Amino acid sequence: MKLLSSDIKTKEILDWKGVHLLNYQFSACSMKTRIYLNLKKIPFTSHQINLSTGENFSEWFQGINPRSLVPVLIHDGEVHIESNDILEHLEGCFKESPLIPENMEEKVKEILKFEDNLHVDIRNITFKFLVPRFLNKGKSVQPKAKNKATLNGELDSMDDVNRNFWEQYEKYGITDEDASKSLIRFRTALDDLNDQLKDSQYILGPELSLVDIAWFIYATRIQHANYPLQRLHPNVFGWYERLYANNLFRKEVRRPLIMQFVLYVHSLILRLKGRSIEDFLLDQ
């Protein structure tokens, strides 16, 4: 999704040359985009936007992305948002080492759209089973900036959806009902993926593609939340292990030791309370 230059209010970025990525280290969509850039060997400048401190709601960033989300690609002054659209744009510009198999453009679009539709579900799973709620307590959603970026000259309704999520999460967390529905959708999607990978090295066949990168990030995130991927979807787990052996994938999903410790303690507490992801799966 390319923004018009008139949509951008933080005008300085329109003069940036080359490939720049506004991203956050632990953002799933940012990880996906960085893996793609590194696999394609595309030189880029990384600009970290700290979501944990609400930097994505700063006036500077609100003047760039009307949705206040990362990643954002700035390519020779052109601004692109939404990770899958960013990848498709880059694939059209950098032809070497293609990651969309020949004659499968529409198939890739279809699968990436399906993957994107699961974004709310992976967010529910992440904030229900992986990230302790106290880490996001007090995270303020700053008011809309006066010079907020627009989408085709209009305020973007998706910004209100995203803001509403954080406001509801601050009050109520992720409800059991929403978590259960998200787990059902994800388990069904992984069952289908498991069948696809029964006799195939990669999701679309013998060649690595954008689809593998996107699902690798999801598979990483749910395993960090203690979803039993190996037991329930062994073919997906084998595919994941093959990708994880590649350092270009592995280095983007590594967690600092302090984060591993905090999340481990959180998972122990959930198990002791009978509130782990395994407990929810048993109830389905």
End-to-end separation in angstroms reads 38 Å
The structural domain count equals 2
Question: What is the average per-residue confidence, as pLDDT, rounded to a whole number?
Answer: 93
Number of strands: 4
Tally the helices: what do you get? 13
> Order of strands across the widest beta sheet?
2-1-3-4
CATH architecture of the largest domain: Up-down Bundle
CATH topology of the largest domain: Glutathione S-transferase Yfyf (Class Pi), Chain A, domain 2
Q: Main sheet?
A: 4 strands, mixed
> Which overall shape is indicated by the principal axes computed on the Cα atoms?
globular
Low-confidence stretches: none
The fraction of residues in strands falls at 5-15%
What is the share of helical residues? 40-55%
CATH class of the largest domain equals Mainly Alpha
Secondary-structure element sequence? EHEHEEHHHHHHHHHHH
Please compute the radius of gyration using only Cα atoms: 19 Å
Pairing-aware structural class of the strands and helices? mainly alpha
Q: What oligomerization state is this entry in?
A: single chain
What does it look like?
It contains 13 helices and 4 strands. It has 2 domains: 5-93, Glutaredoxin (3-Layer(aba) Sandwich), CATH 3.40.30.10; 105-146 and 173-282, Glutathione S-transferase Yfyf (Class Pi), Chain A, domain 2 (Up-down Bundle). The model has no long low-confidence stretch (mean pLDDT 93). It is mainly alpha-helical and 284 residues long.
